[in-house]
Amino acid sequence: MLLLLIVALPFLGLALPLLAERGGRRLCMLATALAPLLALGLLLTQMATVFSGQLVQAGFEWLPGLGLNPGLRLDGLGFLFALMILGIGLLVILYARYYLGEDEPVGRFYAYLLLFMGAMLGLVLSDNLLQMLMFWELTSLSSFLLIGFWGHRSDARRGARMALAVTGGGGLALLAGILLIGQVVGSFELGAVLAAGDLIRASALYPLILVLVLLGVFTKSAQFPFHFWLPHAMAAPTPVSAYLHSATMVKAGVFLLARLYPALSETELWFYLVTFTGLATLLFGAFMALFQHDLKGLLAYSTISHLGLITLLFGLDTKLAAVAAIFHIINHATFKASLFMAAGIIEHETGSRDMRRINGMWRYLPHTAMLAMVAASAMAGVPLLNGFLSKEMFFGETLSAGHLGGYGWVVPVGATLAGALAVAYSLRFIHDVFFNGEPINLPKFPPHEPPRYMKVPVEVLVFICLLVGMAPAYTVAPILAAAASASLNGPVPEYSLSIWHGFNMPLLMSCVALVAGSILYVLRQPLFRWYAGLPELDAKDLFEAAVVAVVERARRFTAWLEQGSLQHYLGLMVLAALLALTTGLLSLPQLGGSLGTSVPDGATALGLLLLAAAALAVTFMHHQRLAALMVLGLVGLLVVLLFARFSAPDLALTQLLVEVVTLILLMLAMYFLPAEGRKESTSLRGLGDVLLASGFGVLVAIVTFAILTRPFESISGFFVENSVPGGGGKNVVNVILVDFRGFDTLGEVTVLAIAATGIFAMLQGLQLFQPVVDERGRHWARDRHPLILSMLSRIILPMALMISVYIFLRGHNLPGGGFIAGLVTAVALILQYIANGASWVRERLPLDYHLLAGVGVLLAGLTGLGSWWFGFPFLTSAFGHFSLPLVGEFELATAMLFDLGVYLTVVGASLLILGSLGKLNRNVPGEEVL
Predict the structure, then answer these.
(1) What are the C-alpha distances in Å from 51 to residues 4, 77, 256, 559?
(2) Residue 419 domain-assigned?
């Protein structure tokens, strides 16, 4: 329950900033901070448990057969990320209160921030891979809202779209990879997956699994060549950049690397794919960062570089490298969030982020300058700061890169070069912004220090950089050990967090990087001139061109597909079915099976012949719509008789009522159509339709023969044996619908309610006026509602409702149930509309059919959720026998509540559709009839 609260609190607090916005920014900020503050407090209560190496879990069974068992897991790795998400999130909430403009919707911004925070918490604390994927996608959607918060700016819209497209595409690949992991392991639960590393690596699917999972990781964590979305996401407000691009969204990918490290690592394929992707990203990001003129652009490319560093460490495939990766995750989150916030302060006070203009800020923003210089020094890896410690561990691990043989020097040389570039772009951040002469044409001048509390988040993060850098063993050691142990799924190797390790190769590499980076910055002007001469190539242009090309091809395909012809659509569907069936038949060694065929009795044969003749007659009579509709009703009636002939009373009742509702629906629609349909365009088109239909009919007959002549094991025996002891009902069909296959039924009634709402929405703005005359020019009778029909309908209604209740109550043991009862009620009520008019019915029966259908779906869903409360899987039903005086013994089952939900949904959806289509506007304004 505690873990569930930690994840749920940000979602529960979504409405608070929206409600508190009218009370001012301060109240809005405090209301927003309430949920993460409570979640952080709950998280810290588990610190001692996690640091002792224990695992905190919470979960329940939902659909165990599909591996859908939602659960939460708090170990050292989850604790570390949850702490960063909540801690830095609280600092960003405080910072955003001062950053956002007075006219900006701060309540909406905070609501988006809480949505993203909850998604990230769900991701890092998930104990099920499918559940983790759900939160993974939610982070993409919520980050889209945050990046595109300034929707009036085209660059923000493009950046948000780009981020969503790239990370969403990676999410699809990750989905495929997770499904394959579940296929190999037999479970999606994290504990089972982490324990099955040998099984996964031995599987023939391992290369495909690894590539798919890494695609998800690389797109989320902006690895080369999927890096391009991150610089363009800088169009977001700076609080978003400080949160998403330091500790949360971009870290989701490396979190997944750390989480699945025991299951997917320890292979050459892992080493080469992860190591060289990380190395390429590390070098490319560092190189590009040096030449950026936009302050946030420099920080964006440096983020890409540091994410490459972390990825490279995981790729080296040693336990100590994994420890170093997690250590750098912590350090990067602190110094990069503080740098983004400092950049936001500078932009807030000067109106610009162009480093060619914002010079000499030391004179105007001395406090901010000091904080930013310390954070930038940590980013460069200067001693006595946290970045130096993890970079030194990084340099040391690159020296032991395996699998490269005589090319083992490539990784450490590349790492040292990237370190030098990091020093150079960090020096540029410090020198160009805070020194380097006077400011040039600033939109706001003179700048001054921001409000006191706007700097507090930066101060807190910089203080952590100093504290960890000077006393790592007393600050970061416990949480680092716990997180590394959880990532490795085992003991952590020995390592030292001392500031001084003596003169060794990692120290030499650090010194070389510091000296070379300083020289590189001093000699920057020739480099800048060389870079300016390079052809301008932005992956954004390639992305935009790809989007335009895809949209254009989709438009052409849609124009060909959607021609407005039902004949065309039906032909395509039949053709697709033909191809699918033919493919299946070609794989069979022979058409017929070992079972023989039987000759139907005379009555059944006659019914089948009449059914075929009636169906054929519909095709010949389709120009005369009313006659064709009557024959179509005959087809339905013959199907009902066949169901009854083969002892399927539930199906027969359902089909009969569906036919009645369908006939009413089609009659209402035909009122607005010509009496005769138009002729086919060409005889050739008609011949094509005949051939297609005939081929499909023959093929279906062949498939039916192939299936029914082969022996198969029926599952009907299971349902018959378990209907009473397992579901408490003798009507096997109803027990299947509301118990054994209740989840299917829930999906069906949900679709029915959605379809009804969609039809209502389409018809809402449609004004259907009653024609003055019919197609022959005759005036309509003045008596719209004949007295006999009206009186009969009023007599029929209570009888029909009584029958409906009877069918509903007996459905668990005899033919009936909520669906059939709902159709009976719907037919009885629609008869009232036909016989008495819409206005008359609404005056006496003011029902909201939207609400009725919604309550039905909600009741069915809540019945399933109720089983969770008692620790059973979703939609598990219970039943019992009770006794009352005079009544005697009777049975009650929770499935009755589910069936009641089905009943309400069917009634609401049916009347919503029929009422919308049958509503007419007379020529008299404001008067409606049916």
Answers:
(1) 20, 11, 21, 61
(2) yes
**Which residues are CB-neighbours of 325 under 8 A, at least 6 positions away?**
254, 257, 258, 310, 313, 314
Count the neighbouring beta carbons within 10 Å of the beta carbon of residue 226: 22
The token duo for 656 is 């009969």
Q: How many domains does the chain have?
A: 3
Task: Return d(Cα 513, Cα 521) in angstroms, integer.
Answer: 12
Backbone Cα Rg of the chain: 35
| pLDDT 10s digits, 61-105 | 776 666 678 899 999 999 999 999 999 999 999 999 999 988 889
Q: 174 with 212: CB under 8 angstroms?
A: yes
Angle between helices 319-350 and 452-470 (to 10 degrees): 150
Q: Is residue 825 part of a domain?
A: yes
Instruction: Pick the most confident of 205-214, 408-417, 839-848.
Output: 205-214
Confidence of residue 298 (pLDDT cuts 50, 70, 90): very high
Pairing of β 920-921 and β 879-884: unpaired
Contact between 394 and 510 under an 8 Å Cβ cutoff? The reply is: no
> Which residue range forms the structural domain that includes residue 660?
610-673
Residues 766 and 892 in one domain: yes
Three-state DSSP class for residue 882:
strand
Same domain, 299 and 391: yes
- Helix, strand, or coil here: 775? coil
Looking at residue 780, its pLDDT comes to 66
Q: Give the integer Cα–Cα distance in Å for 421 and 292.
A: 13
Give CA separation, 213 vs 52, 200, 207, in Å.
31, 13, 10
Alpha helices in 106-153 (DSSP H): 106-124, 129-147
Q: What is the C-alpha to C-alpha distance for residues 575 and 691, in angstroms, rounded to an integer? A: 11
Is 332 found in the same domain as 453?
yes
Distance from C-alpha of 860 to C-alpha of 839, rounded to nearest angstrom: 31
